[in-house]
Write a structure and sequence with these properties.
The protein has one domain: M1 Pyruvate Kinase, Domain 3. It contains 4 helices and 11 strands. The protein is α+β, with helices and mostly antiparallel strands. A hairpin with an 8-residue loop joins strand 1 and strand 2. The strands form 2 sheets. A 7-stranded mixed beta barrel has the order 1-6-5-9-8-7-11.
Length: about 170
């Protein structure tokens, strides 16, 4: 039985590498490509490679709130450079798990740890404080629309899925 775990609090895309992310009320998640209009969808991201873990990134609002309360560092969801801000779901638990976000089905690939590039863009020291809670990289297994307010649903504990093979560059650019 599928159980609701959380919801989408924000959606953010950036058309070019290092450009500020824009808030969106909804976005189309495309299998094998990413979020329509995002820099990684069009092969423009700073770390773009034809890999499934570049399709969509998520971060917990609770992590950003803890960063502010524990460390005194305010980081707006769009500044975190993740595509989807969530509430009420532990993203670390979704590594190697299938889950639905709105109409799309995603697969958690690996944690999305903060990096020097993020620190340079924000001007904030984030790696020590966000280590282990910087978000999740995910592949899109089934395309669909994701809207702010949509639920995030995961299968029963232990339900996992095979990680898809990296896609060829010609498929991504198509």
């Amino acid at each position: 039985m599928v159980r609701a775990q959380g919801q989408v609090e924000g959606i953010f895309i950036g058309a070019e590498a290092a450009a500020p992310l824009e808030s969106m009320p909804e976005v189309r998640a495309e299998q094998g490509r990413g979020l329509a209009g995002d820099r990684y969808w069009s092969g423009q991201g700073t770390f773009w490679k034809p890999l499934t873990d570049r399709e969509v990134t998520l971060i917990e609002m609770e992590s950003l709130e803890a960063l502010a309360s524990d460390e005194g560092i305010t980081l707006e969801p769009r500044e975190a450079r993740r595509n989807i801000a969530t509430r009420g779901v532990r993203l670390n638990d979704l590594v190697n798990q299938q889950f639905r976000v709105g109409d799309a089905t995603l697969l958690g690939i690996r944690l999305c740890e903060p990096c020097g590039h993020l620190e340079r863009l924000t001007g904030k020291t984030l790696r020590p404080a966000l280590g282990g809670r910087g978000g999740l990289r995910a592949a899109i297994l089934a395309s669909g629309v994701i809207r702010v307010g949509d639920s995030i649903q995961a299968g029963p504990e232990g339900e996992s899925a095979a990680i898809p093979e990296p896609l060829g560059a010609s498929h991504i650019a198509g």
